[in-house]
Description:
Layout: H1 4-13, H2 16-25, E1 34-35, H3 37-44, H4 48-60, E2 64-67, E3 72-75, H5 77-90, H6 92-107, E4 110-117, E5 120-127, E6 142-144, H7 149-155, H8 160-168, H9 183-196, E7 199-202, E8 209-217, E9 223-232, H10 238-265
Amino acid sequence: MIGVDQMARRREYRSRTLERGIAVLRCFGADSPELSLTEIVGRTGMPKATVFRILCTLCEAGMVVHDETHRRYRVGACALDLGTAFLQALRLPSIAAPYLERLAVECMESASAAILDGAQVVYVARAATRRWMSVNLQVGSRLPAYCTSMGRAMLAYRPWREVRALLARTTLVAYTPKTVTDLSRLAEILHAVRTHGYAVNDEELEIGLRSAAAPVLAGLDRALAALNVSAPSSRVSLEMLVEEFVPRLLQATREISDVLRRAAEAGADLDNPGTLPVARPR
Length: 282
Protein backbone atom coordinates (compact mmCIF):
# COMPACT_ATOMS: atom_id res chain seq x y z
CA MET A 1 0.00 0.00 0.00
CA ILE A 2 1.19 3.51 -0.76
CA GLY A 3 1.06 5.73 2.32
CA VAL A 4 -0.09 9.32 2.52
CA ASP A 5 3.50 10.54 2.90
CA GLN A 6 4.56 8.64 -0.22
CA MET A 7 1.66 10.10 -2.19
CA ALA A 8 2.61 13.59 -1.04
CA ARG A 9 6.23 13.04 -2.08
CA ARG A 10 5.11 11.79 -5.48
CA ARG A 11 3.05 14.93 -6.01
CA GLU A 12 6.02 17.02 -4.90
CA TYR A 13 8.27 15.47 -7.53
CA ARG A 14 5.79 15.70 -10.39
CA SER A 15 6.60 18.03 -13.27
CA ARG A 16 3.66 20.21 -14.27
CA THR A 17 5.37 21.11 -17.55
CA LEU A 18 5.85 17.46 -18.45
CA GLU A 19 2.24 16.70 -17.55
CA ARG A 20 1.13 19.36 -20.01
CA GLY A 21 3.36 17.92 -22.71
CA ILE A 22 1.89 14.46 -22.14
CA ALA A 23 -1.61 15.93 -22.31
CA VAL A 24 -0.79 17.35 -25.74
CA LEU A 25 0.59 14.02 -26.98
CA ARG A 26 -2.49 12.17 -25.74
CA CYS A 27 -4.65 14.29 -28.05
CA PHE A 28 -3.36 12.22 -30.97
CA GLY A 29 -4.81 8.79 -31.64
CA ALA A 30 -6.04 6.39 -34.28
CA ASP A 31 -9.15 8.52 -34.76
CA SER A 32 -7.19 11.80 -34.79
CA PRO A 33 -3.74 11.24 -36.34
CA GLU A 34 -3.47 14.88 -37.42
CA LEU A 35 -4.64 17.95 -35.51
CA SER A 36 -4.47 21.71 -35.87
CA LEU A 37 -3.25 24.01 -33.11
CA THR A 38 -6.83 25.13 -32.49
CA GLU A 39 -8.04 21.54 -32.15
CA ILE A 40 -5.31 20.71 -29.63
CA VAL A 41 -6.14 23.83 -27.62
CA GLY A 42 -9.78 22.74 -27.58
CA ARG A 43 -8.93 19.22 -26.42
CA THR A 44 -6.50 20.22 -23.68
CA GLY A 45 -8.18 23.38 -22.45
CA MET A 46 -4.77 25.03 -22.16
CA PRO A 47 -3.93 28.54 -23.41
CA LYS A 48 -2.97 28.74 -27.07
CA ALA A 49 0.47 30.20 -26.30
CA THR A 50 1.21 27.35 -23.87
CA VAL A 51 0.16 24.69 -26.38
CA PHE A 52 2.24 26.33 -29.11
CA ARG A 53 5.39 26.33 -26.92
CA ILE A 54 4.85 22.68 -26.03
CA LEU A 55 4.38 21.75 -29.69
CA CYS A 56 7.57 23.57 -30.65
CA THR A 57 9.47 21.58 -28.00
CA LEU A 58 7.91 18.28 -29.09
CA CYS A 59 8.75 19.04 -32.73
CA GLU A 60 12.36 19.75 -31.78
CA ALA A 61 12.50 16.38 -29.96
CA GLY A 62 11.00 14.50 -32.90
CA MET A 63 7.90 13.52 -30.92
CA VAL A 64 5.63 15.64 -33.15
CA VAL A 65 5.91 16.73 -36.79
CA HIS A 66 4.47 19.99 -38.13
CA ASP A 67 3.02 20.08 -41.63
CA GLU A 68 3.57 23.75 -42.46
CA THR A 69 1.59 23.57 -45.71
CA HIS A 70 -1.63 22.40 -44.07
CA ARG A 71 -0.81 23.82 -40.61
CA ARG A 72 -1.39 20.51 -38.87
CA TYR A 73 0.56 18.39 -36.42
CA ARG A 74 1.02 14.63 -36.28
CA VAL A 75 2.92 12.17 -34.10
CA GLY A 76 6.62 11.90 -34.94
CA ALA A 77 8.87 8.88 -35.33
CA CYS A 78 10.26 9.13 -31.79
CA ALA A 79 6.78 8.77 -30.29
CA LEU A 80 6.12 5.76 -32.52
CA ASP A 81 9.38 4.21 -31.29
CA LEU A 82 8.05 4.41 -27.74
CA GLY A 83 4.86 2.65 -28.77
CA THR A 84 6.85 -0.09 -30.47
CA ALA A 85 9.01 -0.51 -27.36
CA PHE A 86 5.88 -0.85 -25.23
CA LEU A 87 4.44 -3.59 -27.43
CA GLN A 88 7.75 -5.46 -27.55
CA ALA A 89 8.04 -5.36 -23.76
CA LEU A 90 4.43 -6.41 -23.36
CA ARG A 91 5.02 -9.61 -25.33
CA LEU A 92 1.28 -10.26 -25.44
CA PRO A 93 1.20 -9.69 -29.22
CA SER A 94 3.68 -12.52 -29.82
CA ILE A 95 1.77 -14.81 -27.46
CA ALA A 96 -1.59 -14.03 -29.03
CA ALA A 97 -0.52 -13.88 -32.69
CA PRO A 98 -0.70 -17.61 -33.56
CA TYR A 99 -4.08 -17.95 -31.86
CA LEU A 100 -5.42 -14.94 -33.75
CA GLU A 101 -4.16 -16.40 -37.02
CA ARG A 102 -5.92 -19.66 -36.22
CA LEU A 103 -9.16 -17.84 -35.37
CA ALA A 104 -9.00 -15.78 -38.57
CA VAL A 105 -8.56 -18.94 -40.64
CA GLU A 106 -11.26 -20.93 -38.84
CA CYS A 107 -13.82 -18.12 -38.80
CA MET A 108 -12.72 -16.44 -42.04
CA GLU A 109 -13.09 -13.09 -40.24
CA SER A 110 -10.73 -10.65 -38.50
CA ALA A 111 -9.46 -11.55 -35.03
CA SER A 112 -7.89 -9.15 -32.53
CA ALA A 113 -6.37 -8.94 -29.06
CA ALA A 114 -6.63 -5.94 -26.75
CA ILE A 115 -5.81 -4.79 -23.24
CA LEU A 116 -7.77 -2.43 -21.02
CA ASP A 117 -6.40 1.07 -20.48
CA GLY A 118 -8.74 2.99 -18.22
CA ALA A 119 -12.11 3.18 -19.97
CA GLN A 120 -10.67 2.21 -23.36
CA VAL A 121 -9.47 -0.95 -25.06
CA VAL A 122 -6.14 -0.76 -26.88
CA TYR A 123 -5.56 -3.13 -29.79
CA VAL A 124 -2.20 -4.88 -29.35
CA ALA A 125 -2.41 -7.59 -32.02
CA ARG A 126 -4.58 -8.30 -35.03
CA ALA A 127 -5.04 -10.89 -37.76
CA ALA A 128 -7.06 -9.11 -40.41
CA THR A 129 -9.19 -10.83 -43.00
CA ARG A 130 -8.85 -10.02 -46.67
CA ARG A 131 -12.60 -9.79 -46.85
CA TRP A 132 -14.23 -6.36 -46.77
CA MET A 133 -14.57 -4.64 -43.39
CA SER A 134 -16.02 -1.16 -42.81
CA VAL A 135 -14.03 -0.44 -39.63
CA ASN A 136 -10.33 0.32 -40.13
CA LEU A 137 -8.68 -1.03 -36.98
CA GLN A 138 -4.98 -1.57 -36.41
CA VAL A 139 -2.51 -2.14 -33.60
CA GLY A 140 -2.69 0.89 -31.33
CA SER A 141 -6.33 1.69 -32.13
CA ARG A 142 -8.45 2.66 -29.13
CA LEU A 143 -12.16 2.11 -28.63
CA PRO A 144 -14.49 2.69 -25.68
CA ALA A 145 -14.70 -0.33 -23.40
CA TYR A 146 -18.36 -0.01 -22.41
CA CYS A 147 -19.75 -0.69 -25.89
CA THR A 148 -17.19 -3.12 -27.33
CA SER A 149 -17.09 -6.88 -26.88
CA MET A 150 -13.46 -6.97 -25.71
CA GLY A 151 -14.05 -4.07 -23.34
CA ARG A 152 -16.99 -5.84 -21.73
CA ALA A 153 -15.10 -9.13 -21.60
CA MET A 154 -12.47 -7.41 -19.44
CA LEU A 155 -14.71 -5.04 -17.44
CA ALA A 156 -16.81 -8.02 -16.33
CA TYR A 157 -13.89 -9.22 -14.23
CA ARG A 158 -13.52 -5.93 -12.37
CA PRO A 159 -15.54 -5.08 -9.24
CA TRP A 160 -18.69 -3.20 -10.26
CA ARG A 161 -17.87 -0.26 -7.97
CA GLU A 162 -14.59 0.14 -9.86
CA VAL A 163 -16.31 -0.11 -13.24
CA ARG A 164 -19.00 2.35 -12.18
CA ALA A 165 -16.38 4.87 -11.02
CA LEU A 166 -14.54 4.42 -14.31
CA LEU A 167 -17.65 4.96 -16.41
CA ALA A 168 -18.68 7.95 -14.30
CA ARG A 169 -15.64 9.75 -15.70
CA THR A 170 -16.54 8.72 -19.26
CA THR A 171 -19.05 10.19 -21.67
CA LEU A 172 -21.26 7.26 -22.63
CA VAL A 173 -21.96 8.03 -26.28
CA ALA A 174 -24.78 6.28 -28.14
CA TYR A 175 -22.89 5.46 -31.35
CA THR A 176 -25.94 3.69 -32.77
CA PRO A 177 -29.57 3.24 -31.70
CA LYS A 178 -28.46 -0.10 -30.20
CA THR A 179 -25.69 1.28 -27.97
CA VAL A 180 -26.34 0.62 -24.27
CA THR A 181 -25.50 3.69 -22.17
CA ASP A 182 -27.64 3.03 -19.08
CA LEU A 183 -25.45 2.01 -16.12
CA SER A 184 -27.95 -0.42 -14.62
CA ARG A 185 -28.31 -2.18 -17.97
CA LEU A 186 -24.53 -2.28 -18.40
CA ALA A 187 -24.24 -3.86 -14.95
CA GLU A 188 -26.66 -6.60 -16.05
CA ILE A 189 -24.70 -7.16 -19.26
CA LEU A 190 -21.37 -7.45 -17.43
CA HIS A 191 -22.92 -9.90 -14.95
CA ALA A 192 -24.07 -12.05 -17.88
CA VAL A 193 -20.60 -11.84 -19.46
CA ARG A 194 -19.04 -13.04 -16.20
CA THR A 195 -21.60 -15.86 -15.98
CA HIS A 196 -21.23 -17.12 -19.56
CA GLY A 197 -17.56 -16.29 -20.10
CA TYR A 198 -17.95 -14.28 -23.29
CA ALA A 199 -19.32 -10.96 -24.58
CA VAL A 200 -21.04 -9.94 -27.80
CA ASN A 201 -21.48 -6.63 -29.56
CA ASP A 202 -24.51 -6.50 -31.82
CA GLU A 203 -24.11 -3.30 -33.85
CA GLU A 204 -23.58 -1.10 -30.78
CA LEU A 205 -20.41 0.54 -32.08
CA GLU A 206 -21.41 0.68 -35.73
CA ILE A 207 -24.48 -0.47 -37.59
CA GLY A 208 -23.51 -3.46 -39.71
CA LEU A 209 -20.74 -4.70 -37.40
CA ARG A 210 -20.92 -7.58 -34.91
CA SER A 211 -18.27 -9.11 -32.69
CA ALA A 212 -17.75 -11.65 -29.93
CA ALA A 213 -14.97 -11.66 -27.35
CA ALA A 214 -13.61 -13.75 -24.50
CA PRO A 215 -11.19 -12.78 -21.73
CA VAL A 216 -7.67 -14.09 -21.22
CA LEU A 217 -7.75 -14.89 -17.52
CA ALA A 218 -5.07 -15.05 -14.84
CA GLY A 219 -6.81 -17.09 -12.17
CA LEU A 220 -10.58 -16.98 -11.85
CA ASP A 221 -11.17 -13.28 -11.42
CA ARG A 222 -8.57 -11.34 -13.35
CA ALA A 223 -8.70 -10.54 -17.06
CA LEU A 224 -5.30 -9.62 -18.48
CA ALA A 225 -6.53 -9.17 -22.03
CA ALA A 226 -9.27 -10.23 -24.43
CA LEU A 227 -9.57 -11.77 -27.89
CA ASN A 228 -12.36 -11.12 -30.35
CA VAL A 229 -13.66 -11.99 -33.79
CA SER A 230 -15.55 -9.28 -35.68
CA ALA A 231 -17.60 -9.47 -38.85
CA PRO A 232 -20.18 -7.56 -40.90
CA SER A 233 -23.74 -8.42 -39.89
CA SER A 234 -24.48 -9.05 -43.58
CA ARG A 235 -22.18 -12.10 -43.40
CA VAL A 236 -22.61 -13.28 -39.83
CA SER A 237 -25.85 -13.54 -37.87
CA LEU A 238 -25.93 -13.21 -34.09
CA GLU A 239 -26.70 -16.93 -33.83
CA MET A 240 -23.70 -17.82 -35.99
CA LEU A 241 -21.51 -15.52 -33.89
CA VAL A 242 -22.49 -17.30 -30.67
CA GLU A 243 -22.75 -20.87 -31.95
CA GLU A 244 -19.70 -21.01 -34.23
CA PHE A 245 -17.28 -18.25 -33.23
CA VAL A 246 -17.63 -18.20 -29.44
CA PRO A 247 -16.53 -21.85 -28.89
CA ARG A 248 -13.38 -21.19 -30.93
CA LEU A 249 -12.71 -17.98 -28.99
CA LEU A 250 -13.13 -19.75 -25.66
CA GLN A 251 -10.74 -22.48 -26.75
CA ALA A 252 -8.10 -19.92 -27.78
CA THR A 253 -8.38 -17.87 -24.59
CA ARG A 254 -8.28 -21.01 -22.43
CA GLU A 255 -5.08 -22.10 -24.14
CA ILE A 256 -3.47 -18.68 -23.65
CA SER A 257 -4.61 -18.65 -20.01
CA ASP A 258 -2.98 -22.07 -19.56
CA VAL A 259 0.26 -20.68 -21.00
CA LEU A 260 0.11 -17.81 -18.51
CA ARG A 261 -0.68 -20.16 -15.62
CA ARG A 262 2.30 -22.38 -16.41
CA ALA A 263 4.50 -19.31 -16.80
CA ALA A 264 3.39 -18.02 -13.40
CA GLU A 265 4.11 -21.41 -11.84
CA ALA A 266 7.58 -21.24 -13.40
CA GLY A 267 8.18 -17.86 -11.77
CA ALA A 268 7.10 -15.38 -14.46
CA ASP A 269 5.54 -12.16 -13.22
CA LEU A 270 2.14 -11.64 -14.88
CA ASP A 271 2.36 -7.94 -13.99
CA ASN A 272 5.58 -7.81 -16.03
CA PRO A 273 4.52 -9.38 -19.34
CA GLY A 274 8.03 -9.07 -20.73
CA THR A 275 8.88 -12.19 -18.68
CA LEU A 276 6.23 -14.30 -20.40
CA PRO A 277 7.06 -17.03 -22.93
CA VAL A 278 6.12 -17.17 -26.58
CA ALA A 279 3.51 -19.89 -27.12
CA ARG A 280 2.09 -21.89 -29.98
CA PRO A 281 -1.49 -23.14 -30.23
CA ARG A 282 -2.10 -26.82 -29.87
